[in-house]
Amino acid sequence: MTEAIAKEFVEQINYRLDESTRMIVLSFDQLSEEDIWKRPNANSNSIGNLILHLCGNITQYAISSLGCLEDERDRDSEFLIIKGISKKQLLEKMQSTVKKAKEIISAISVDELLRKREVQGFNFSGIGIAIHVTEHYSYHTGQIAFWTKQLKDKKSLGFYDGIDLNIKNKNK
C-alpha cells in the first residue's frame, strides 16, 4: 500500500465518520431528553443505548486496538442503562470518542494499517478495523435516524437540505 493510497483511505474513513456524526447531531436536535431513552419495545434499544454502544465499539476497535491501548470495554453495560445520561452528555461522549478515533486512524502508519490484530475475537488488519468502525457507525446512525423519524413522524430529518440529490454522475 502506498502512502498516497493510505492517505486517501484515511481521508475517506474520516469523511464517513464525520457524516455519521453530522446525521446523529441533526437527529438529536429534533429529540427531547425523554425521546433519547424510549424503546420501541422491550427487545429493542433506545437511542441512548445505541450511542453508548457506538462509543464502546469505536473505543474497543479504533482507540484501543489501533491506538495500542488496554481494552476495557464492558459491552453488556452499554445496553443496561435506561436513563440518567442527558442528550448533551451523550453527544459530547460520542463526539469526543469519534474525534479520538479519527486522530488515531490519521496517525497510524501504512504498516499498522496492514498489520493484523485480534479485536473482539476477530482477526482484522488496521484497514479492516477502520472499515468496521465506519460501517458499524453508519449502520447504527441509520437506526437512530429511523427511530427519530418514527418518534417525530417525519419524512426527512434534513440531512441533505439544500443539496440536489438528483444530479447525474459526470463520467469523463
List the helices and strands and how they pair.
Elements: H1 3-29, H2 33-36, H3 47-66, H4 87-107, H5 110-114, E1 116-119, E2 122-125, H6 126-152
Antiparallel strand pairs: 1-2
Helix pairs in contact: 1-4, 1-6, 3-4, 3-6
Task: Provide a concise account of the structure shown.
It contains six helices and two strands. The protein has 172 residues and is mainly α. Strands 1-2 form a two-stranded antiparallel sheet.
What would your notes on this structure say?
This is DinB family protein. This protein is mainly alpha-helical and 172 residues long. The protein has one domain (3-152): Four Helix Bundle (Hemerythrin (Met), subunit A) (Up-down Bundle). Helices cover 60% and strands 5% of the residues. It contains six helices and two strands; from the N terminus they run αααααββα. The chain has helices at residues 3-29, 33-36, 47-66, 87-107, 110-114, 126-152; strands spanning 116-119, 122-125. A two-stranded antiparallel sheet has the order 1-2. Helix 3 packs antiparallel against helix 6 (126-152). It is flat and about 45 Å long.
Coarse structural class:
mainly alpha
How many domains make up the 3D coordinates?
A: 1
CATH architecture: Up-down Bundle
Q: Could you tell me the mean pLDDT?
A: 95
**Major beta sheet summary:** 2 strands, antiparallel
Discrete helix count: 6
User: What percent of residues are in strands?
Assistant: under 5%
Q: Any idea what the radius of gyration is? A: 17 Å
CATH topology: Four Helix Bundle (Hemerythrin (Met), subunit A)
Give the C-level CATH assignment.
Answer: Mainly Alpha
Order of helices and strands: HHHHHEEH
**What's the overall geometry?**
flat
CATH H-level homologous superfamily name = dinb family like domain
Query: Ends: how far apart?
Result: 26 Å
Widest beta sheet: strand line-up: 1-2
